[in-house]
Write a structure and sequence with these properties.
This protein is mainly beta. The chain has one helix at about 10-20; strands at about 30-35, 35-45, 50-55, 65-70, 75-85, 95-105, 110-115, 120-130, 130-140, 150-160, 170-175. About 5% of the residues lie in helices and about 45% in strands. Strands 1, 2, 3, 4, 5, 6, 7, 8, 9, 10 and 11 form an eleven-stranded antiparallel β-sheet that branches. The longest helix is centred in the first third of the chain and has 13 residues, at about 10-20. It is globular. The N and C termini lie far apart (about 60 Å).
Length: about 180
């Protein structure tokens, strides 16, 4: 027995790390101030399917979903499916709509368009020109907004596969009103 060192067998450590990464209580992104959000941006490899967990913010704690990303020919194909989303009116945004955003590691923001809520679910497919990016879903009064507002509902987190090692960047995204 070694003294002064703590060691955990690998076969116990990986499931624990996977559980923590996928746990709905793992707060990867967070509101860093009233006008900014910390978001994780993943660097996607060429010609490989990568699944990324999306989780709810403090406005929608039970919301969850999955993003499938494949980078090919200078663009990422992004398929998002999520459920347990509240209606925009339930978040104090009467007449608001869900808008999906991509943010790259240089804080370049792209409005990917409105996403229709079907009951408590959303499903959409879009193209993103960024190789390294994170996703936010917000409720907006104007779907043509240039920057995400403060009503953040979902955020992308980490890849599902714990054996996949990819660069991940934490970025602070400025939020509008």
């Amino acid at each position: 027995m070694r003294s002064g060192k703590f060691s955990v067998p690998y076969n116990y450590l990986m499931p624990l790390l996977a559980f923590l990464a996928l746990s709905p209580f793992a707060a990867w992104g967070e509101r860093s101030s009233a006008t900014a959000w910390n978001l994780l941006a993943v660097a996607y490899p060429d010609a490989r399917d990568v699944e990324v967990v999306v989780g709810g913010s403090e406005r929608a704690l039970t919301a969850r979903g999955l993003v499938k990303v494949k980078w090919r020919d200078g663009a990422a194909t992004v398929e998002l499916a999520a459920d347990q989303l509240p209606a925009p009116a339930d978040l104090g945004k009467t007449g608001g709509q869900y808008v999906l955003w991509a943010v790259d590691q240089d804080k370049k923001v792209m409005n990917l368009g409105a996403v229709q809520l079907n009951g408590k679910r959303i499903k959409t497919s879009v193209q993103v020109p960024f190789r390294i990016f994170g996703l936010l879903l917000t409720v907006e009064s104007d779907v043509q907004s240039k920057n995400p507002g403060t009503a953040v509902v979902l955020e992308s987190r980490l890849p599902v596969n714990p054996d996949l090692v990819l660069p991940v960047f934490k970025i602070e995204v400025p939020l509008g009103s």
